[in-house]
Design brief:
Layout (H helix, E strand, L loop, with lengths): L3 E9 L11 E2 L3 H18 L6 E5 L1 H11 L4 E2 H7 L7 H10 L5 H5 L3 H10 L8 H7 L2 H13 L11 H6 L5 H28 L2 E4 L8 H5 L4 H4 L12 H19 L5 E2 L11 H6 L4 E5 H7 L15 H4 L3 E3 L2 E6 L1 H10 L5 H18 L6 E8 L12 H13 L3 E2 L2 H5 L22 H4 L2 H19 L5 H9 L3 H6 L9 H18 L20 E2 L23 E4 L14 E8 L3 E8 L8 E8 L3 E4 L7 E4 L3 E6 H4 L6 E10 L2 E5 L3 E5 L4 E2 L6
Parallel strand pairs: 1-3, 1-10, 1-11, 2-4, 3-5, 6-7, 7-9
Antiparallel strand pairs: 8-9, 12-13, 13-14, 14-15, 15-19, 16-17, 16-20, 18-19, 20-21, 20-22, 22-23
Helix pairs in contact: 1-10, 2-10, 2-13, 4-7, 8-10, 18-19, 23-25
């Protein structure tokens, strides 16, 4: 397959977490991902000098890495970590118990007995009002161990040898042990930018960037562009400032050049958000190529990429070539291959995952003409994915690069590919949208998004009205246009730190009003996201649905509880998960479960329900199990309570898994519910 090149882009991004005038960041993610993801991703690659990869650094991330390495900032968790455990106040202890378990419990807490035992002592269910009492039950030694472990788990495995004694000891840490961790963290952070710069100069990698504050550029140019993909969208305002989009692009490139010494030829528009109106701005800024999602190409040329049983898309000859419009080259990422790494392979054995990826590449290669050159773009988050893998993805990443090298898969950077390729395909239209659903709904589609946009619009109007030219004020204003605020506003995604984002957004706006001598509007003192997120509803009554794989009549699942998989999200988001929702309920004899899927035929998948309580057992949806099930338009299952050994007041905990050709492709969270003797009541629903 000498005519096919694989182009991998790892995207690194963190929003600006700083409050105006405050050197203490409220969230630790820049520091944590710096010691867990950024440097080691490069060091893994350098072991395989024949493999070429592209890394995208957002300007907001570069600025904050530089602040950390020059001691211009700290974060609140670091302040609490550094403080002597025997000097912690009750308020600080409560804060530690609340925030020092913000990690993937399965991969980053449970494997470490001491850390896990401290989580169990605090309680997996976080009840803020109970934390003062819980804090008083923790000893000084336990708080110190918690301080240490909350940092140890974020250090990438390839760096742990320098402090391996701490991992081996596991508990009973001393205050001076913190100094070893701080020294190692600083050492890692200080190397990041320089190591990438040197490796770029050596020719193994391409470095690219994004707009300054990571805004959705098409929405800055004209917010009405969102109505093209969503005609039913009602916008009570119009934001139309292409000059802001231009500034975001130019400032982003300026920051990138400051740290790496050259202007990038490639550019990843935030969230893959593109429109035809954006392209001239990028061309004027000297950008050679951009990338976005395959669905944008499909809608731009009015077709769809449907895949066969091997994952090979039709029209592969169109997808795996760069296109051109307005003197800029555009690559369209294979969203299935990208999502396999980001969301699927963490649940597979490393060997099986790598074998699956390589076979998919080979199948794509066989489908393409051997007389033409093709490129397969795989573009995904290069930091958040790994905490869902065993050992921070070390075995997968090393095995992945080794397989690419051993099997002689040609890898390339995007710029490198274009040096020996004449782009012939030309677009007459570029459909406006992002990598999520080929639309902008996440960032402007809900009332809370629009409240925030109205705040941005009103503030901008005020800056123009008062003829404000202060660069620091405008820079802080541009931060308000970042995509991350709008990611958390609305009910699509949930995070325990959503309130922090809400507060930061409003504090930035309040600071600007103060600096220009204007009375801030009342809405800036009111949270944009005032409500708690509810992903699950309670069963209203007993149910006895007909198990036929169809929605036989509207009310058969009406009284069931429901878990909304579509709204379950965090910093990462699948293009389209298989499960869209789960219904659950009981009658006197059976546990009933229904699962819906998103725009796919469920019949091609194998399903398994894995019970964790009251006993561990697995029930495959196939012949040989004492259950009734049917998979057609939906999946419906009836499981006798007797085989679960469930009593009238016991709870039940389960996960639903889906496999395709033996590879797990999706799963629900661990779902927990209880059964009362005379009525079903869902209590303490936990995800």
């Amino acid at each position: 397959m000498n005519n096919i090149s694989l182009a991998i882009l790892w995207h690194f991004h963190q929003p600006v977490y700083s409050r105006p005038g405050d050197k203490i960041l409220p969230l630790p993610w820049v520091r944590f991902h710096s010691i867990k993801d950024y440097l080691d991703m490069l060091l893994h690659l350098k072991k395989y000098p024949d493999i070429q990869v592209t890394f995208n650094f957002t300007p907001s991330l570069l600025l904050q890495i530089d602040d950390y390495r020059n001691n211009r900032c700290q974060d609140r968790q670091f302040v609490l970590f550094r403080k002597r455990a025997d000097e912690l106040t009750l308020e600080e202890k409560v804060e530690i118990l609340k925030d020092f378990f913000l990690a993937n419990w399965e991969k980053m807490v449970e494997p470490y007995p001491r850390y896990f035992s401290l989580l169990l002592k605090r309680g997996k269910k976080l009840v803020i009002d109970e934390l003062p009492a819980v804090a008083q039950s923790f000893t000084t030694e336990e708080f110190r161990d918690l301080q240490v472990w909350s940092n140890l788990v974020w250090i990438d495995p390839i760096f742990r040898n320098e402090i391996k004694e701490l991992y081996q000891r596991g508990k009973n840490f001393k205050e001076q042990d913190k100094d070893l961790i701080i020294k190692l963290q600083n050492k890692i952070i200080n190397r990041i930018i320089d190591e990438y710069k040197k490796t770029k100069e050596d020719g193994q990698i391409e470095l690219t960037t994004s707009p300054f504050a990571h805004p959705i550029l098409p929405l800055l140019i004209n917010s009405n562009v969102a109505k093209i993909s969503n005609p039913n969208l009602n916008l009570p305002f119009e934001f139309q400032h292409p000059e802001d989009a231009r500034q975001q692009v130019l400032k982003g490139i300026e920051i990138f050049e400051k740290y790496f010494g050259f202007k990038p030829s490639g550019f990843w528009p935030s969230e893959g958000g593109v429109s035809a109106e954006l392209l001239p701005i990028l061309v004027d800024a000297g950008i050679e190529w951009i990338a976005t999602d395959e669905e944008i190409l499909a809608r731009s040329i009015n077709l769809s990429f449907k895949r066969d049983e091997n994952g090979v898309p039709n029209h592969a000859n169109l997808l795996y070539k760069p296109w051109q419009m307005e003197n800029i080259k555009i690559f369209f990422r294979d969203h299935l291959l990208s999502d396999q790494i980001a969301f699927v392979y963490n649940r597979c054995k490393t060997k099986d995952a790598i074998k699956d990826f390589m076979e998919r590449i080979r199948q794509i290669g066989r489908s393409l003409s051997p007389y033409e050159k093709f490129i397969i773009p795989v573009i995904l988050d290069g930091e958040n994915a790994w905490e869902y893998f065993h050992n921070d993805g070390t075995e997968f990443i090393e095995g992945f690069y080794n397989a690419l090298s051993t099997e002689r898969i040609i890898t390339t950077t995007f710029h490198g590919f274009l040096q020996n390729y004449n782009v012939e395909n030309t677009l007459s239209n570029l459909f406006p949208g992002s990598w999520i659903g080929a639309n902008f709904n996440i960032w402007i589609g809900q009332n809370e998004d629009q409240k925030a946009w109205q705040i941005v619009k009103n503030l901008r109007d005020k800056l123009v009205e008062k003829n404000i030219t202060d660069e620091k004020i405008w820079e802080r204003f541009y931060l308000l246009q970042g995509s991350d605020w709008f990611w958390w506003f609305g009910d699509e995604f949930f995070s325990v730190t959503t309130e922090v984002f809400d507060e930061l957004f409003r504090q930035n706006a309040l600071w600007i009003y103060k600096m220009i001598g204007e009375e801030p509007p009342h809405e800036l003192f009111i949270p944009i996201c005032p409500r708690a997120e509810v992903l699950a509803t309670q069963p209203l009554d007993r149910i006895s649905p007909k198990i036929d794989g169809k929605l036989t009549f509207y009310y058969e699942w009406y009284n069931a509880g429901y878990f909304d998989m579509k709204r379950m999200g965090g910093t990462m988001q699948r293009f389209a998960g298989l499960f869209s929702g789960v219904y659950y309920g009981f009658d006197e004899k059976n546990l009933y479960i229904r699962f819906d899927v998103s725009n796919q035929d469920p019949g091609q998948y194998e399903f398994e329900i894995e019970f964790h309580f009251p006993q561990k057992m697995k029930i495959e949806l196939k012949e040989g199990f004492d259950i009734i099930y049917k998979i057609d338009e939906i999946g419906e299952v009836a499981i006798p309570l007797s085989i679960l050994n469930i009593g009238s007041e016991d709870g039940v905990e389960f996960v639903i898994k889906a496999r395709l050709k033996g590879i797990e492709v999706d799963r629900t969270p661990l779902l927990k519910l209880t059964l009362a003797q005379k009525e079903i009541i869902l209590r303490n629903w936990t995800v």
